[in-house]
Specification:
Order of helices and strands: HEEEHEEHHEHHHEHEHEEHHHEEH
Distance between the termini: 35 Å
CATH superfamily of the largest domain: P-loop containing nucleotide triphosphate hydrolases
CATH architecture of the largest domain: 3-Layer(aba) Sandwich
Oligomer: single chain
CATH class of the largest domain: Alpha Beta
Number of helices: 13
Strand order of the largest sheet: 6-7-8-3-9-10-12-11
Helix content: 25-40%
Length: 353
């Protein structure tokens, strides 16, 4: 680990209560039908998410749930309609009003889903890493730069002679490791990984997940891991946040949340995971109906039952389990488990305190 990373980590030791990244009340709508149209589609709705230092949070949900849109808003590749993005407690949307500063880009990096599409095929691997170092003022002398390049390659598990390779000469897993090395070149505090293993062979996915965990353990990098794969989320993440129709509906420690899913949507996701020990209860017809109900719903996006109170108003957060449990759910239908009624339900203001 470089001296600058060690210095940065130690400088924040006294500020451990300040999250590495915090999203507050973030919303994003996209217009439909051109500039003169008043129609729009809601992609994100009042999202609140916290990423602590040296923590991995998995953001899970189906395609179209808003996971990548949230990541792109955090990375300043999309402009949020409303809300705040705080890095080290600083509201970057207010500080850098029109576009992300170079400082912000050096603090937060994104690894994209397609490792080939994110690498220009006409350049060698060395070009990608050198360019990152040069743009962010970390190149130094030729000897220093060369040593840095070699260190980046070994850190991500690649041979140094692959610096002379073109992307098409590498496997998918190797290309994704190059993308991770490019992100590491600027010594970020936070990495947004948008489904980094979904386009890779199953046999190499575990290597990328282990690399991400090692980077967190060795360098203290915080990571937002976006995925639709609950198995990898359980393996890698400290916490899991479940997104449906642009809203976070449940969040908690990974093992606890998957063992005791409280929201109907989370229960559907868990039931869809193949498990020889039980018969799946996943209902694709119900899922399709819920998808259509999202656009018409004026309260809860999961409103699909006229006999339930879902249309009465937007659900607040309830704590699942004891008062010290960080597992919460946003659902009218949640009921505490037997014997936990005294402390299981917590209102929105109490849950966020």
């Amino acid at each position: 680990m470089s001296n600058s990373v060690l210095s940065r980590m130690s400088s924040h030791a006294a500020e451990s209560t300040t999250p590495a990244l915090e999203v507050r009340d973030l919303s994003k709508t996209f217009p439909l039908g051109g500039f003169l149209s008043h129609r729009s589609v809601r992609a994100l709705s009042n999202v609140d998410l916290t990423l602590e230092r040296a923590e991995i949070v998995a953001l899970v949900g189906e395609s179209g749930s808003g996971k990548s849109t949230l990541a792109r808003c955090i990375a300043r590749l999309e402009k949020p309609s409303t809300g705040q993005v705080l890095l080290d407690g600083v509201d970057v949307l207010k500080r850098d009003r029109f576009q992300a500063s170079r400082e912000y880009r050096s603090q937060l990096q994104m690894v994209f889903q397609d490792p080939f599409g994110s690498l220009n095929p006409v350049h060698r691997v060395e070009h990608f890493l050198r360019r990152s170092l040069a743009i962010h003022g970390k190149a130094g002398s030729e000897a220093h730069t060369r040593a840095r390049l070699e260190k980046l390659m070994t850190t991500v598990g690649l041979q140094v002679d692959m610096l002379n390779s073109y992307p098409h000469e590498l496997s998918g897993g190797q290309r994704q490791r190059v993308a991770i090395a490019r992100a590491l070149a600027v010594e970020p505090q936070v990495i947004l990984a948008d489904e980094p293993t979904s386009m890779l062979d199953v046999s190499v996915r575990i290597g990328i997940l282990n690399l991400m965990r090692k980077l967190r353990d060795d360098q203290g990098i915080s990571m937002l891991y976006i995925t639709h794969d609950l198995a990898s989320a359980r393996y890698l993440a400290d916490r899991i946040a479940v997104m449906f129709a642009g809203e976070l509906v449940e969040e908690g420690e990974s093992l606890e949340l998957l063992a005791n899913p409280a929201h109907p949507y989370t229960q559907l996701l868990v039931s869809a995971v193949p498990d020889p020990a039980r018969a799946g209860s996943y209902d694709p017809v119900r899922r399709a109906g819920l998808r259509q109900a999202v656009m018409a719903s004026t309260s809860c996006a999961f409103d699909g039952d006229a006999e339930q109170p879902c249309s009465a108003g937007h659900p607040v957060r309830h704590r699942v389990g004891g008062v010290d449990n960080q597992h919460w759910v946003r659902c009218h239908l949640y009921r505490p488990r037997a014997g936990a009624a005294s402390n299981a339900l917590t209102t929105e203001s109490q849950a966020s305190a």
